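Section 5: illustrative case.
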């Protein structure tokens, strides 16, 4: 059985030379990217805090104060 795509020529390689974008649209893009970064940072912070809490509770370093263990 022959492949029906065998007689389709391969596409020519593409090279991006220039992007023509108005300055206002570029500012809007970066503004939106900055706003989208806020919830992402909160999520990363929460995941990192949970990981550090779990590691700290496993190894017992959660109640350190001035290099000494606090006595309850």
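Designed sequence:
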């Amino acid at each position: 059985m022959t492949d029906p795509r065998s007689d389709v020529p391969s596409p020519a390689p593409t090279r991006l030379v220039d992007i023509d974008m108005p300055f206002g649209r570029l500012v809007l893009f970066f503004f939106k990217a900055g706003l989208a970064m806020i919830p992402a940072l909160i999520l990363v912070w929460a995941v990192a805090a949970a990981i550090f809490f779990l590691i700290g509770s496993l190894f017992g370093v959660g109640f350190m104060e001035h290099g000494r263990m606090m006595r309850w």
